[in-house]
Structure formats: C-alpha cells, structure tokens
Write a structure and sequence with these properties.
Largest sheet: none
Structural class: mainly alpha
Oligomer: single chain
Order of helices and strands: HHHHH
Radius of gyration: 14 Å
Number of helices: 5
Shape: flat
Length: about 80
C-alpha cells in the first residue's frame, strides 16, 4: 500500500528515465524499510512503460486515500 500511495499512477514511474526511477525507488525502499531489488525496479518500470492509462486527477486522491485506509486497518488488526 505504501507503494500505491506514493506511485499512484504509471506516470509517477514512467516520467523518469529507467536509471532515475531505479535510484528514486532505491531511496523510497530505504525510507520505508523495504529491501531494494534492482529486478523489482526493472519490473515496475517495464510495466509502467507498457500500460496505456487515462486517469483524471480525482483518481489520485481516491487511490491514496484507499491505500492509507488499508494500511491503517492492517496496522490496527496487527497484520501490517
């Protein structure tokens, strides 16, 4: 959910070069306590480059709110 909160749209990934996204993803993983894998960054970047999306700005708010709610629920239930 942390990932979807910060990278809510494919353009949040594909607006970077592959090298720039990989570095941003590495820093993001470190900041959030996740283990960085080059292969994961590559898969995310490739997927973001391959999709065709048309999303209004409102979707950003909806996706981020949903991600925050799932995270909060998981933490309160002791799952997270």
């Amino acid at each position: 959910m942390d990932f979807f909160h910060d990278f809510w749209h494919a353009d949040c990934v594909r607006n970077y070069s592959q090298a720039a996204f990989t570095e941003r993803f590495r820093k993001w993983c470190k900041c959030h306590g996740y283990n960085f894998k080059q292969s994961t960054a590559q898969k995310v970047y490739d997927l973001a480059k391959s999709v065709v999306v048309l999303v209004p700005d409102l979707i950003k708010v909806l996706v981020q709110k949903a991600a925050s709610q799932v995270t909060a629920t998981s933490k309160s239930a002791g799952i997270y």
